């Protein structure tokens, strides 16, 4: 058995490359499918699903391990966005264009970019299926598919974004609408929401609130703004140390927090937001707004729901210490698509 615990008959594989650290599960020589041919578009030593920050970073690292031409990234998007910048775009401090790069320009040299979408995973046969029934086999698989946005789970969205006074920093299609809504604010309720699901970057829904408050102070509108943070959570933030500090800021800036309030409907034509009181299921409250920032419900990518690599909730089922899959030792998960017990953010350590 080679140093990586795999015996393969493919002459294009490089022996002696150690991808598993001590303590990780090794694979039986009979437990790993080996492709009959090593054509560039049929088999890779390392296949990465997802061309976000995590997928791009890992593809570069793996290329240094196994060599150019042996690593591929499956990513359908032609444009790579640095999404953390969108808080500043929504707050008027940056232009949306500065967050964008052509995907090809961020793909590491020597890593093949497969411009397609994964439609199914078959870890028993060590392969994935792409659009147009294309099959790609692998020795190692890294799943970095991120998290999906579900504006459609809020009645009245996404079509409500066609109206003014509403925006969301979580989508390339709506982030600039946030800044427009902030600028156009005159007087009334400014509502910022947090959904009843996991979200990526749990601090972002509050960041834009504080940026908005600062802008209205600067422009003399603060006294006319009733700023509300309506969150489905029972706390302002999940980490007590930071929650205590944030509560001081909220008190100092005279911001109202409504806990256990989950946005379920937007009536954009009437500038009304409907919230369910999670302490009283079925009981709703209607709030008029002059400005509304929506943080959408989120969940695992559709391809992972009911997938053999996922847990019952649809997240990739990995060991929290190694990121190695709990059942398939040649599969690893990375980032927001996993069931790691951390916040879904690159800042989680």
From TrEMBL:
InterPro entries linked: FAD/NAD-bd_sf, FAD/NAD-binding_dom, Sulphide_quinone_reductase
GO CC, alphabetical: mitochondrion
Keyword annotations of the record: FAD, Flavoprotein, Mitochondrion, Oxidoreductase, Quinone, Transit peptide
Molecular-function GO terms, alphabetical: FAD binding; glutathione-dependent sulfide quinone oxidoreductase activity; quinone binding; sulfide:quinone oxidoreductase activity
Intracellular or extracellular location(s): Mitochondrion
FAD/NAD(P)-binding domain span: 44-163
Protein name: Sulfide:quinone oxidoreductase, mitochondrial
């Amino acid at each position: 058995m080679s140093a990586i615990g795999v015996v393969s008959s493919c002459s294009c594989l490089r022996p002696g490359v150690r991808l598993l650290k001590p303590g990780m599960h090794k694979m039986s020589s009979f437990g790993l499918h080996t492709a009959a041919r090593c054509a560039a578009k049929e088999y890779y030593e390392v296949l990465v699903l997802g061309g976000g920050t995590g997928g791009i970073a890992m593809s570069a690292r793996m290329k240094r391990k196994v060599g150019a031409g042996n690593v591929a990234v499956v990513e359908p998007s032609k444009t790579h966005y640095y999404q953390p910048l969108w808080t500043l775009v929504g707050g008027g401090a940056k232009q949306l264009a500065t967050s964008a790069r052509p995907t090809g320009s961020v793909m590491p040299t020597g890593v093949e970019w497969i411009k397609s979408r994964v439609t199914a995973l078959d870890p028993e046969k060590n392969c994935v299926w792409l659009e147009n029934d294309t099959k790609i086999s692998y020795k190692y698989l890294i799943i970095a598919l991120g998290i999906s946005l579900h504006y459609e789970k809020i009645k009245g969205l996404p079509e409500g974004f066609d109206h003014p006074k509403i925006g969301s920093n979580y989508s390339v299609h709506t982030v600039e609408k946030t800044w427009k809504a902030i600028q156009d604010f005159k007087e009334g309720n400014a509502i910022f929401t947090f959904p009843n699901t996991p979200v990526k970057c749990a601090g972002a829904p509050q960041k834009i609130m504080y940026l908005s408050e600062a802008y209205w102070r600067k422009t003399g509108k603060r006294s006319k703004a009733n700023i509300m943070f309506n969150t489905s959570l029972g706390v302002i933030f999940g980490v007590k140390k930071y929650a205590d500090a944030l509560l001081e800021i909220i008190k100092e800036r005279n911001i109202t927090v409504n806990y256990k309030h989950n946005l379920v409907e937007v009536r954009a034509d009437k500038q009304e937001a409907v919230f369910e009181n999670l302490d009283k299921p079925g009981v709703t409250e209607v709030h008029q707004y002059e400005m509304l920032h929506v943080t959408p419900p989120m969940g695992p990518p559709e391809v992972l729901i009911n997938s053999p690599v996922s847990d019952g909730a649809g997240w990739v089922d990995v060991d929290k210490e190694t990121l190695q899959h709990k059942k398939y030792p040649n599969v690893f998960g990375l980032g927001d698509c996993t069931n790691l017990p951390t916040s879904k953010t690159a800042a989680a350590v």
